[in-house]
Amino acid sequence: MLDKKTYRETFSALHASGDTLKEVYDMIEKRRRGSLGRSFLAVAAVVALMLALCAVAYAADWFGFRALLRPGTTEFEGQTYNNISLTQPQAVPSWLDGSIAEKVENSKAAWAEFSAWRVEHDPMKELPEVFQGVLGMGITDLEDGGAELQCNTEDGLETRYATPEEYAQFRALMDELNSYDGEYAQGYGVSWAGEAQALRDIAAKYGLDLLGGFRVLWSSETTGLTGEGFYTNAELAEMTAEFGNSGSVFYEPPAGFDKVYYYDEGSFGLKFYLEAPSGAGQLSCYGYNSVYSTLSSGGVMSWEADLSSFTERRHTAPDGTELTILSNGSDAYIYVYLEDSFFAMHVYGAEDMSDADVDYAADAINYSNIGR
């Protein structure tokens, strides 16, 4: 729906162009001396036209997948897929508070710098040629201190031999990688100490927090397991208040959970299930809250082949939060730019999801409780 600020900005932009409204006013002037009824109808038509033009102008500025679409594509089994990020907003509409765009671009710039550092300092590039171009590898130690390598490459399987010197260099690197304590493995895929230090340095340069203190919780009801780390669905729903939120992010416990996980600084992920009110089946919901002041990788992704199959609309949640929804009957993406974070959710699983089903999933979250 149009709020007053957006309506005013859209109408002002339309008025500034002049041409369209000049034609409208010329039409009114030509008919001004006609009968009262005809004049009234003309004015009514003009008002309707102006409102329609405003709606079109606003719709043209709907942001759609630009908020989620990562650069590049993924090829899989002959099909090209678009990469949809749930953990890092990719762009911010111009009508939002400019400070949000600055924070998002700051985090993206930091991640781009770290990604470039990784390519330049990839330790595997320093290994001898015999270990290059390998997708997977089986190793058999030889009596002379070398190794026989069964390598899976893009061209298929092949056998290689590493000299004792080459194999010693390989083992030294593996020892270094295996000595890493894994502090940033979960949030960033960091695998060695030098990489972790570069991540810290770049985050500090951009004034960003890092994902840390990762914890994952599971549903005892969904898994049938009990013990440490397993909780009932009701307990998991209530525990979301401990993720740096002002209260539970659920109005009531969902039908089931796969897992919930969170980091110390307020980012968290939710994988839960709902029963579609239309009877279409079970809705799988994966939501993620990405804090603007945290360096985010955008690594949790979904793939979509045909973005044109989705329609975009607005939806007002029970707490008054205005959401953007993109859906095509089998998948839906829901997102909102909150004051301190970006929340995005992928809904899928049920056949022929109706708008009511998607709205039901969107309304399961209390967005006002996200963050402090």
Write out key terms for the chains shown.
single chain, 372 residues, alpha+beta, 3 domains, 3-stranded antiparallel beta sheet, 10 helices, globular, disordered N terminus, transmembrane helix, membrane, transmembrane
Describe the structure.
- With 372 residues, this protein is α+β, with helices and mostly antiparallel strands.
- It has ten helices and 15 strands.
- It has three domains: 57 residues; 189 residues, no CATH class; 83 residues, no CATH class.
- It has a nine-stranded mixed sheet. It has a three-stranded antiparallel sheet with strand order 1-2-11, with no helix packed on it.
- Strand 12 and strand 13 form a beta hairpin.
- The longest helix is centred in the first third of the chain and has 25 residues.
